[in-house]
Amino acid sequence: MLRRTYLGLEICSNELRAVAVQRQGKSILWRGGQTSPLADGILRPNPKKINVNKPELFVIAAKELLDPIAKKETRIAAVLPDNCGQLFLLNLETPLKSRAEGAEIIRWRLKDLLPDDFGAVALDYQVLEENEGGQKKVLAAVISKEVLLQYEYLLERSGYAASVVDFHTLALYNSYRTQFDLGRDFILLGVDGCQLSIMVFANRVLEFCRLRQIESQPERVFNELNRSLVEYRNQHSGFNRLPVHLHSDWQQGVELFAAVNSVFDQEVQWLVSPLGRVINYPQDDISAVKNIGTNGLVASLGGAERMIKRVSA
């Protein structure tokens, strides 16, 4: 029986990261993965203008990365840097009769936060929770159409079509959520390169989200966590009891772990890569997977898993 291959491609400012997996029953089967470095200046994430400054070099890197593992599959899940778009948590009272109407209502709610020509942005959203009174908590993802279209066009030139587009932090959460029970109320921290993400969940519903660009230094993470969480901490008496999970692709893990621990009144739980639960993942022969550490491909895996769920739905 031929199995479809699912490709997850994460686009970072300094490299591309990709995985190829297949579905085996309720499990995931490893088919390949690697990274391809991007020279300085090829890509600079930006929410207001096109991100790829050297398109030809980007296309070459994407083809060299994906072609050996694609198994003739051309559809991919593209995971974009957090700072090329924006995420918003909203509470809505208005009924959403259709997805199109919901998008227009959200655009109107965000009109003071979006460009003057807010029709020039692509917007998607997910209803996270709805109470008995009809109030909805909604997560909205927004990206400039110009930025999105450039990524889609360059991937098409590479021979691939972006069937799913996600941001790094959402793909990261999706990857861990499908493999581990993180609890009902918890904090998920992601430190990848210069990206810091903070997500606080209450009853498994996202309640607080903050995304920041930082220097790759543990003390910068410490300072930004304290700044970002001070208001939420003061407003929620149970904050210090929330389990804290940390993901990172940094090499200086000991220093980072110590810095994050000092922010909270408990020991932070360092997340084990979900790749360890993927069937046939070469855990004992890491040389079989080019240029990667296990934590570096978590978001790529999250993108591929989202494609699997979409096909299965």
Task: Please outline what is shown here.
The chain has seven helices and 13 strands. It is an alpha/beta fold and 313 residues long.
Features of the shown structure:
single chain, 313 residues, alpha/beta, Nucleotidyltransferase, domain 5, 5-stranded mixed β-sheet, 13 strands
- Spans with pLDDT under 50 lasting ≥5 residues? 285-292
Q: Strand arrangement, largest sheet?
A: 3-2-1-4-8
Average pLDDT: 90
Largest sheet: 5 strands, mixed
**CATH architecture classification of the largest domain:** 2-Layer Sandwich
How many extended strands?
Answer: 13
SS-based class: alpha/beta
CATH topology of the largest domain: Nucleotidyltransferase, domain 5
User: Could you give the order of the helices and strands?
Assistant: EEEHEEHEEHEHEEEHEHEH
Name of the top-level CATH class of the largest domain: Alpha Beta
Domain tally: 3
End-to-end separation in angstroms reads 21 Å
The dominant shape is globular
Total helical segments: 7
> Radius of gyration from the CA trace?
19 Å
Strand fraction band? 25-35%
